[in-house]
UniProtKB/TrEMBL annotation:
Protein name: Terpene synthase
Natural source organism: Xylaria multiplex
Organism taxonomic ancestry: Eukaryota, Fungi, Dikarya, Ascomycota, Pezizomycotina
Gene3D superfamilies for the chain: Farnesyl Diphosphate Synthase (1.10.600.10)
Amino acid sequence: MLANQELREYELSSLEPRKRRIKIKLKRHDIHMMLDVPDYGVVPRYTPIPSSSQVLRAHTEFKKLLEPGIAQDDSFHKRCAAEVNVINIFFPDIESPAIRICFTAWLVFVISMDDILETLPPHDGEVALLDSIQIVRSLPESEQTGTSTDTRIQGLTRVLHRHCTHWLSEKVAESFFEAACDVFRAHINELFFLQGHIPNDLSTYMGIRVRTIALNPFFDIIKSEFLPEDSRFNAVWGKLQKEVCRAAGLQNDLIGLERDLEGGERLNAVIVLMASENDQPREPGEELLTRYINQVTAEHNQSTAQAIDLIAQINQNMGTIYSKKVAETARHIILLCETHLKWCMNAKRYHMKIEDEVSTPSAN
């Protein structure tokens, strides 16, 4: 009962987005970031979704399997509710309990996997990721690489696979796990990037980042669940997903920049850009840091602008045949530009100010 009281739900104020410019001030530098987002006006919802309790119960059982031995006290149940709440804000108008259950499981799995990868030597990390690909493809253990003594990630992957195959149809699960495999492969590329085996420039980094942000498995479930098959594989969906993933990845990097600078983190678009131009990323001056932040902010705003243009193309080219389904699917995907930023800022306790707004074409 206590955990149920912790649930938060959201809804859209409008089905027609407005492009808003959000002003965000860094905490320890006198620098403002100006981020453009398509804004649907996501606000708290006061009429609960009937399936929310079911989602929380299923997620709690998943977490027990993911973290065996953890004390199942009030703190544990509050964390479970907080994780469900992340998906509630990411996808406020998706009500299917099965989808929300698997979305929450994937979110928590990715965070846990990232934490473990940071502790592993590169070889062990690569083995774990290759094994995970084999696991979600349901291949026998004899075909897995199996040369690492640390198998924590493989264990998490087996729990995720069993959980999501229970809740998703075979068709949807297949799409989901294929997208998950691409996330695993991207993390292998990230290991190569950190070891200097591939170019350490912004273009290479962003080619990896749009995949390690791990949003495509969400999007592929949405497409498989809501779109007719003949429109699901239109190339425009991939373009839209890429721009949204790019925007979300850059939001993470910009909002987390100060922490990454302090911690010596290399996987951040601003830091990669500085290092590729031979500037010292650890203690950059205010003017230099502003220049690089503005460059990365411009990349973000270009992606959100392109995502908005793609929404218009999707509705124009496919909306006459599958008007409602196409519009809903497109909205579920592009909403992440807004909701992911809200979540990032809330998690890192930043405050934002709406500077201006510009009307954009309807996404319906």
